[in-house]
Amino acid sequence: MQFVLDGINTSILIVASINILLGILIYANNRKAVINRIYIINIIAIIAWILGMFLYRSAVDSLIFWAIVLYIPPTFIAGTFLYFTYFFPLRDVSFLRLKTALIFILNIILATLVVFPGAVIESVFIRPGMEKSIVFGPWYWLYAVYIISFFTFGLSRLFIKMFRSRNTFERRQILYLLIGYFIAANPAMATNLVLPLFGYFELNWLGQIFTIFMVMSVTYAIVKLRLFNLKVIMTELLVFIIWVAIFVEVLLAETIKKGILKGGLFVFTVIFGVLIIKSVLNEVRRKEEMEKISGQLAAANARLKELDKLKSDFVSIASHQLRSPLTVIKGYGSMILEGSFGEISGAVKNVVEKIFQSSERLIDFVNDLLDVSRIERGKMQYNFEKTDIFGIVSSVVEEFQLTAKKKGLILEFKKETAEIPPFKLKLDANKIRQIILNFIDNAIKYTPQGGIIVNILKTGKRVEIKVKDTGIGVDKKDQKKIFEQFMRIGGANAVGGIGAGLGLYVARKIALAHNGEVAVESEGKGRGSTFILRLPL
Ligand code: ADP
């Protein structure tokens, strides 16, 4: 046969080569994955169809044979395409052997039908200056219906899969594939199946050319979304080209000496080429592994957040439930002590006092818990108002005088600054009061002897409230930690009694909400400490 190399046939050959390249790319990337295999078979069928058109257009005799060669591949293109949609992007769970068999059997039946002379193709005529024309047989309609329905079904399957997918990456993968096949398949079906029915054959080669859109969108997807792994493929291709180039050099060597030299170089590049490909493969695998792990981490993280929220909710509910009965206990305790229910003996008074103090401690603890859960859920509410900070500090110091005295400690409020008072600041009085309260309460708790000095001063654009004690001090390494939740330093129990380690955490959060900060200064264990609240003026 004499090959015709007119414009159309040349374009057909170019498109065929591009399809072959894509096939090689995908094969080189991963020939083991089922999805790649199915896809490669699809591409092989497409290439066969394109080359079939080239031969059919070139042929001058055995026309029916060449027409059959041209009409068989589309049955496989349609079959493998539909099959592919059951595996892409992930294998359908409901996919059965039955469906595989059905697609396969239908495919074979249709392909066989084409082979039978007269069934699909009856005769072919050469028309000078025009495309050949075909007289179709009685089974042509079945052929057309088969191909059109397989494609329509496959495309709509991809379409539905795209809509159902929750994964944006996967969605885009499907989208690119869908666009490519949609643009390629529809004109192909129109010009190869429908128009010939009406005796119009002039564009029957257009479908082959249009496969370029399929190639383009799949390649784009490869590059953009790494549908298949591009990096490895590129390395393999590059290394392969270098091998071929050097091998040709070896063959073309003018002298034996040059041949040996170049041969050595060839061996060298082969060894290093293999090593490079292996290392790239390794890198890609590691990267994939990392991606997988980071995905798992993200999922675990989301789950942890969920659990954390559950915990906060639980703490909040439990604390609310605890608070009311505790308040009742405290209330009755105080009434008994005040003699509201008559005189009580010294021993009973002692016991009730303990009940009263314990309930007070518990209420404080529950309140701290509530604060923590509010902070964690972002539900802490602040009422900012211009307030005299000086007044707050001095009233808290007053409140603690008795407690300090009972413990034999001096508690003094030193007004160091010459400026003002009062300092009028925009703040939530109750919350700031809570911080000072916590500082002084701690100072008394953690100071076995000596005393506490509270002072308030202005430094630059800030007001500092300092609570300095002569207590157990805080080690340098612990100074950051004590502002964390449930953080208590060794020795705290022995000196200060039971505590939950929440007070300073809440204090820090409140200070931050005021654009301020809390800090601790201490020379170390046993050398006292100073707790500082800084607020912007
Ligand atoms: P709690 O006092 O209930 O344990 P806080 O959050 O108020 O909780 O304090 C956390 C920890 O910081 C305390 O357990 C203690 O170890 C340490 N701490 C707080 N204040 C002082 C202080 N004035 N002197 C020494 N250590 C302190």
Q: Could you give a quick summary of the protein structure above?
A:
The chain has 15 helices and nine strands. It has 537 residues and is α+β, with helices and mostly antiparallel strands.
Bound molecules: adenosine-5'-diphosphate
Order of strands across the biggest sheet? 4-6-7-9-8
How many runs of DSSP E, i.e. beta strands?
A: 9
Q: What's the architecture of the largest domain, going by CATH?
A: Up-down Bundle
Cα-based radius of gyration, to the nearest Å: 42 Å
The geometry reads as: elongated
Can you give the helix content as a percent range?
55-70%
Query: Which runs of at least 5 residues are low in confidence (pLDDT < 50)?
Result: none
Q: Structural class, from helix and strand content?
A: alpha+beta
Q: Mean pLDDT across all residues, rounded? A: 87
How would you spell out the order of helices and strands?
HHHHHEEHHHHHHEHEEHEEHHEE
Task: Give the name of the CATH superfamily of the largest domain.
Answer: Rhodopsin 7-helix transmembrane proteins
CATH top level class name of the largest domain: Mainly Alpha
Count of domains: 3
CATH level 3 topology of the largest domain: Rhopdopsin 7-helix transmembrane proteins
Q: Strand-residue fraction?
A: 5-15%
Euclidean distance between termini CA atoms:
96 Å
Could you please describe the fold and organization of this structure?
By secondary structure, the protein is an alpha+beta fold. The chain has helices at residues 7-29, 34-58, 63-71, 73-85, 97-115, 140-164, 168-194, 206-225, 230-251, 256-337, 346-376, 389-406, 429-445, 492-496, 503-513, and strands spanning 121-125, 133-136, 385-388, 410-414, 424-427, 451-459, 462-469, 517-522, 529-536. It has three domains: 7-228, Up-down Bundle (Rhopdopsin 7-helix transmembrane proteins); 230-379; 385-536, 2-Layer Sandwich (Heat Shock Protein 90), CATH 3.30.565. Helices cover 65% and strands 10% of the residues. It has a five-stranded mixed beta sheet, covered by helices on one side. Strands 1-2 form a two-stranded antiparallel sheet. A hairpin with a 7-residue loop joins strand 1 (121-125) and strand 2 (133-136). Helix 2 (34-58) packs antiparallel against helix 4 and helix 9 runs antiparallel to helix 10. The model has no long low-confidence stretch (mean pLDDT 87). The structure holds adenosine-5'-diphosphate (ADP). The site of adenosine-5'-diphosphate has 23 residues, from helix 13, helix 14 and helix 15.
